[in-house]
């Protein structure tokens, strides 16, 4: 069986490739050149010449062919333009999810199939289980590294052709395998979240791409009273307390961003709590929308502690959920992802919180 492995020059993807070679697959290593930020000292943190060199060295050590694919145009349209547009609209995006949908499991999987490969593999910490003629996406065994949240957009067709060799391993076990196999990336540090920003300063990147979002504007309380001036909406996110710069009898938090008025809305902890939210663009792993209300657990951010919810499907691929207890950080633009124990049900983009 032939497998194309997405290599990044890091330890996770390298060990994924090594395990597949060990298991007898015919493996090709592919690195995606995603982005080159103009004027940056480094092309970007995921596709530097050093990273390419590490990926190539791993491929040579494993005795597998290596290809570098230029997907910068696709990445710009699917990920960077989306990231900028969401911030311009006052939302807080997660760029990893459209990248997985359109690039890693969209373009790369199609390319791999065109090359005659049976599967594409990555170093994600997640698992796939076949049940009859259907596929389930499961959490990774290591709760500290589980990445199923950013994979909830995978379809049945994609799940049928993806492999996650690290799904049953912990990070330390992965590093130990890398050491045992003599991989030169065994001690490579973790990669950052926003890989296309060269210095990791996404606010600097946004000041270049969305200069209007860096303009100062009014800070309003929930009654509409002006209580201060903010330093640009790109510097704030829902639930933030530090850096607001407003003196008040009790702590104030960011409760909303209003790009039309260039206003930052702040309130007390009580005003930050939400009893539920509405998500749009819902995608269900099974390919079928639930016929009626159901219960599940949910994450409203990647590192969010799950909460029990009652979920009600709405017309137009929307979903309303009610939390078992109020949640503070309901952030438009982030993803609501639903679980039933270890199985990912699906998810969608948070449109708004519900009081």
Topology:
Blueprint: E1 2-6, H1 11-22, E2 26-33, H2 49-62, E3 66-70, H3 72-88, H4 96-114, E4 119-121, E5 126-131, E6 134-139, H5 156-159, E7 162-163, H6 171-180, H7 202-209, E8 217-221, E9 226-230, E10 253-258, E11 263-267, H8 269-272, E12 274-284, E13 294-299, E14 307-314, E15 318-327, E16 335-340, E17 343-354
Parallel strand pairs: 1-2, 1-4, 2-3, 4-7, 8-11
Antiparallel strand pairs: 5-6, 8-9, 10-11, 12-15, 12-17, 13-14, 13-16, 14-15, 16-17
Measured between the Cα atoms of the first and last residue, the distance is: 52 Å
Radius of gyration: 21 Å
CATH-defined fold name of the largest domain = Rossmann fold
Q: How is the biggest beta sheet arranged?
A: 6 strands, antiparallel, barrel
Portion of residues in helices? Answer: 10-25%
The arrangement of helices and strands along the chain is EHEHEHHEEEHEHHEEEEHEEEEEE
Average predicted confidence as pLDDT: 92
Estimate the strand proportion: 25-35%
The total number of structural domains is 3
Count of distinct strands? 17
- Give the CATH class of the largest domain: Alpha Beta
**Strand arrangement, major sheet:** 12-15-14-13-16-17
DSSP helix count?
8
Poorly predicted regions are 40-44
Instruction: Specify the overall morphology.
Output: globular
Walkthrough of the structure:
The protein has 8 helices and 17 strands. The protein is α/β, with parallel strands linked by helices. It has 3 domains: 2-180, Rossmann fold; 215-271, SH3 type barrels (Roll), CATH 2.30.30.280; 273-354, Translation factors (Elongation Factor Tu (Ef-tu), domain 3, Beta Barrel), CATH 2.40.30. A 6-stranded antiparallel barrel has the order 12-15-14-13-16-17. Strands 3-2-1-4-7 form a 5-stranded parallel beta sheet, sandwiched between helices. Helix 1 (11-22) runs parallel beside helix 2, helix 1 (11-22) packs across helix 6 and helix 3 (72-88) packs antiparallel against helix 4 (96-114). The longest helix has 19 residues, at 96-114. The protein is globular and about 65 Å long. The model is unreliable at 40-44 (pLDDT under 50).
């Amino acid at each position: 069986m032939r497998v194309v492995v997405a290599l990044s020059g890091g330890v996770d993807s390298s060990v994924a490739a090594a395990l597949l070679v060990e298991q007898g697959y015919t493996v090709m290593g592919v690195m995606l050149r995603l982005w080159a930020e103009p004027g940056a000292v480094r092309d970007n943190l995921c596709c530097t010449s050093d990273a390419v060199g590490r990926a190539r060295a791993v491929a040579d050590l494993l005795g597998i062919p290596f290809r570098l694919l230029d997907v910068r145009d696709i990445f710009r349209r699917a990920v960077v333009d989306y990231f900028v547009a969401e911030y311009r609209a006052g939302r807080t995006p997660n760029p990893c999810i459209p990248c997985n949908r359109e690039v890693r499991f969209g373009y790369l999987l199609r390319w791999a199939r065109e090359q005659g490969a049976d599967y594409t593999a990555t170093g994600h910490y997640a698992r796939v289980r076949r049940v009859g003629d259907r596929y389930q996406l499961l959490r990774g065994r290591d709760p500290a590294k589980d990445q199923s949240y950013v994979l909830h957009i995978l379809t049945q067709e994609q799940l049928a052709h993806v492999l996650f060799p690290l799904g049953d391993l912990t990070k330390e076990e992965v590093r130990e395998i890398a050491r045992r196999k003599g991989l030169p990336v065994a001690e490579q540090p973790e990669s950052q979240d926003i890989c296309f920003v060269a210095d990791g300063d996404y606010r600097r990147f946004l000041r270049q791409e969305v200069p209007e979002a860096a303009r100062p504007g009014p800070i309003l309380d929930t009654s509409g009273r002006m209580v201060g001036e903010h330093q640009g909406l790109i510097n704030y996110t829902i639930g933030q307390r530090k850096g607001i710069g407003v003196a008040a009898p009790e702590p104030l938090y960011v409760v909303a961003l209003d790009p039309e008025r260039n206003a930052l809305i702040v309130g007390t902890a009580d005003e930050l709590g939400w009893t539920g939210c509405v998500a749009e663009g819902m995608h269900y792993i099974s390919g079928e929308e639930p016929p009626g209300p159901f219960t599940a657990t949910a994450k409203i951010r990647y590192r969010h502690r799950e909460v029990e919810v009652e979920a009600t499907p709405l017309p137009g691929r929307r979903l309303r959920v009610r939390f078992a207890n109020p949640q503070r950080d309901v952030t438009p633009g982030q993803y609501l992802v639903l679980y039933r124990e270890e199985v990912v049900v699906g998810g969608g983009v948070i449109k708004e919180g519900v009081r």
